[in-house]
Amino acid sequence: MRRSTIFKLLGAVVALFLALGVAEVGLRLLGYGPRPWGATAAGYFWVADTELGFRNRPDGSFRNRAIVGQPLVTTDDQGFRRGLGWDGGEGVPAVVMVGDSTTFCAEVGDDRTAASELARQLGGKVQVLNAGVAGYSTVQARRMLRRCLELYPSIRVAVHMHCGNDLVENLNPVVYHPAWAPTVRWDAGANAFVDVPPAVAPEAAGRPVAPPAVGRLHLALHRLGQGSAVARLTEAVARRALGLAPVYGPTVELESGAVGPVFVGTERWQQQVEWALQNRGVEAVQAELQAMDAMCRERGVTLLVTEYEAGRGGGSGELDLARLSHAAGVRFVDLRPAFPGPPQGYRARQVTGDLDPHWGAEGTRAFAAAMAPEVATVLEADAPSE
């Protein structure tokens, strides 16, 4: 090879590295850095729990760099999401919200979560506890509700935010090693659903929960994004080109033993939904709502059930939650009138340019505007007459 050719190749290599270096610096200045292993909100906050399977770590603080604006997400000494006006004080009329990532709201700052916006709509006179945990099923939400009612006797209203993936997750253990979530199963002999305890050894309690491997291609792309900001952007482009979900999701172990990612809308997800429908998944949701309501009634608490909504085309699609709530004797709040516009008006935006599946600030405000009158009505009826 001629010397001039070698110099040209070396020059091209140096130019490439310089270009990558400039791109890396530029992206980091814009706040778009590499993603370390496990540095998702769930990967940071989840710790194992022998009753709940997993919960949020206490006194957590996480900067969500995946979302435009990089909101700061923090938890209190109990692992509950911090929010506007919440201090856990005794004797204060309180509302508790239970559910999954749509309740936890890691895509907005502490004072802009659905719980915080609800407290704001209520005039700051009522404390609202955000007990949401990403990845929770209805089974886990029911167990978390019981824990909250025991911790805070001043709670008067409980709001459960249902999400469509609960249909599957109530029946099949979600695997976040070392934690498997609790589930329910149908016992034909008892003619009822029975609890399946979480597979968490006592010595694992409080330990961080590792993010799962969801297939070699997903894992390889996820690791690619750890190297640098440029690598992370390359990962996002590759996922879009291959038609893969832009988020790193959980796994569900089906009865057949097969493990796959829970990406709503994919063919794999539809298979899981069909399995759940065949195994009394709809009845399981109704049974959990009834159990929540009974728990609340024993303590003089009113349960309100609603469904995550983010604009036209929202909702679970697989079940009629309003009908199930009515059958369970539970008050249902329909959020659809509060979300008349397209989803992009209510959902958060990822730094990659993708639309996040969770609410941004407009979504949490729309939720609170719809829910506040319902909560206020209950609290006013519950207030002692002068």
Strand order of the largest sheet: 6-5-7-14-15
Q: How would you describe the oligomerization state of the chains in this entry?
A: single chain
Query: Helix content range of the residues, please?
Result: 25-40%
Strand content: 15-25%
Q: Helical element count?
A: 12
CATH topology of the largest domain: Rossmann fold
Instruction: Tell me the total number of β-strands.
Output: 17
Overall pLDDT confidence? 83
Low-confidence stretches: 247-261
Order of helices and strands: HHEEEEEHHEHEHEEEEHHEEHHEHEEEH
Q: Determine and state the CATH class of the largest domain.
A: Alpha Beta
Going by CATH, the homologous superfamily of the largest domain would be: SGNH hydrolase
> What is the domain total for the residues?
2
The assigned structural class equals alpha/beta
Shape call = globular
How far is the first residue's CA from the last residue's CA?
Answer: 97 Å
Largest sheet geometry: 5 strands, parallel
Q: Name the CATH architecture of the largest domain.
A: 3-Layer(aba) Sandwich
Which radius of gyration do the C-alpha atoms yield? 23 Å
